[in-house]
Specification:
2 copies of one chain form a homodimer. Chain A has 10 helices and 19 strands. The first copy, chain A, has about 325 residues and is of the alpha/beta class. Chain A folds into 2 domains: about 170 residues, Quinone Oxidoreductase, Chain A, domain 1 (Alpha-Beta Complex); about 120 residues, Rossmann fold (3-Layer(aba) Sandwich), CATH 3.40.50.720. The model of chain A has no long low-confidence stretch (mean pLDDT about 95).
Chain lengths: ~325, ~325
């Protein structure tokens, strides 16, 4: 099959073996896949990943030995494949299973190929109202929904989202639905305008002065974003850390203790509410698509996705 | 009056002016004061404080112009004097008032003197069952109680307290009362034995291998403690930061996001439950007293308190 293979460089492989599902897993024909910032970082060497990257996808189940009822269904899939039997899994935290593999990120080939494997337990059927181009956003939209899954956002809260990129856009749309007093701060007027058109107040970071928010969500991926977020969260407020950073960050932990700030790390989130919001038209993802490339042009697609000002770039894998 | 004055060096002043309470405040004759690690840090230059240090005390109200009903009462006092009218105060977070002064720490003379001033609203009467030597621990015991005030400790939680010093001792005793599966890790066998005698499992840090705790409380005051705490908290677990550190700490924030850890800063806590626990004999503080000095020997007392292996050193101010 055709597959993108990351081996320090992105390689296009034309005869990559079609995978066979082990017990409990399904083979899915990928229709569309999305390029995420994590993919760009993997290409730069993050986690030293070798294999097929890609973890945002929509596809169709073609083979599922133990679960033939899934064959032919259009699905999205949770990316962490857990062991199911360790104490962490049994405690109900499978996305943190220490034995997990993660689609296209760690120990498991991903979605930038004609076929992928995932445990059937990870799959979610996509309702017919949600087109492929929207369904491919379920994974990052679920990551945005992890925030209200972890912390209670009050309708009266002053919430600042730092970052106007792909993740910031989805986080802002999700948090807007709480009725909270929302402000998105970013560096890119065009990206902020996408949110402004939905009625979300925005501000360029250079224009932001003194702020005091109940909740600040850090989505910039830069250590400077962390320091701004720390400065803008009120005492006893919450700083949600969605970003991952290269290396360590110098942090003033004393001020976190003195101000009794809660710093909450946040990663993968729940798929069912993401599908509901798309089905009900409460979140718009189509306007975030900036380009589409066929799978064989993945290298160009990656370059495009890495350009300043670009939001989502999709890969068309199969019809 | 006799007062200890911090002016880079600790000075003993014999004719320091007796303070007069402004409206809303009371003058308290200090009976006993306690030396806290923060006092040792102030002496080393922390916050560049000039004035009378000391914030752990028990005393008797001598003058209270607006509230004569308090005169003669034996009291302890919350250390943050808030403005009462700013948005933070009105939102019910007076200990974070941006206009606050803090007894013996910031903008307000403290307890290492014959008299101090505090707002009457900060005072709590000490029940007769609680002797002076125990009442002087109410402030740090309240800081320990801030942990269950901020987060829900489940009786089934695996909780690790890092640090066997003054604060670690009180935190461990308070958390033991939840019924949780508690382990205190420290560097000092004698200090750990104080806890072991209360039935609390303990371990020397050098003996601690792989651990995975639902909650880790960092009470060491050293950046190494933070890194150990981070390593030992499970994914989606909580790291309570009681320590303040000199300068910034290099932290791997990416792992906080990936493991969805909650880092909760924690500082001053509620006085009424601290008084209840002492009154009901559920926490022992007397065994933490290692030395007592008269106020005029404050410099020697500070030196003693800074010695390795020493827990609480008290200053006897007036009978």
């Amino acid at each position: 099959m055709l597959a993108v293979y990351l081996n320090r460089e992105l390689e296009i492989r034309h005869n990559y073996p079609v995978p066979s599902p082990p017990p409990g897993e399904a083979r899915i024909r990928v229709k569309i896949a999305g390029i995420c910032n994590t993919d760009l970082e993997l290409r730069r060497g993050y986690l030293d990943f070798r294999g097929v990257p890609g973890h945002e996808f929509v596809g169709v189940v073609e083979e599922a030995p133990d679960h033939p009822e899934w064959i032919g269904k259009r699905v999205v899939g949770e990316i962490n494949a857990a062991c199911g039997i360790c104490p962490t899994c049994r405690a109900g935290r499978p996305t943190h299973c220490p034995n997990r593999t993660t689609l296209g990120i760690s120990g498991r080939d991903g979605a930038f190929a004609e076929y992928l494997l995932l445990p059937v337990v990870n799959l979610h059927e996509v309702p017919p109202e949600v087109p492929d181009e929207a369904a491919v956003f379920v994974e990052p939209l679920a990551a945005a929904l992890e925030i209200p899954q972890q912390i209670h956002i009050h309708p009266t809260d002053r919430v600042v989202v730092l970052g106007d990129g792909k993740l910031g856009q989805l986080v802002a749309q999700v948090l807007q639905l709480t009725g909270c007093d929302l402000l998105v701060i970013g560096r890119n007027r065009n990206k902020l305008d996408l949110l402004a058109r939905r009625g979300i107040p925005t501000m360029l970071v250079d224009e932001a002065g003194a702020l005091s928010a109940d909740v600040v969500v850090e989505c910039t991926g830069s250590p400077e974003g962390f320091h701004l977020a720390r400065r803008w969260v009120r005492p006893r407020g919450t700083l949600v850390l969605k970003s991952t950073y290269h290396g360590t960050v110098e942090a003033n932990l004393t001020m976190i203790a003195v101000d009794e700030v809660a710093v909450i790390g946040s990663r993968c989130g729940p798929f069912p509410p993401a599908l509901r919001l798309l089905q009900q038209g409460l979140v718009d993802v189509l306007s975030l698509i900036h380009a589409r490339y066929p799978l064989r042009e993945a290298a160009q697609a990656f370059d495009h996705a890495a350009r300043k000002g670009v939001l989502k770039v999709l890969l068309d894998v199969s019809p």
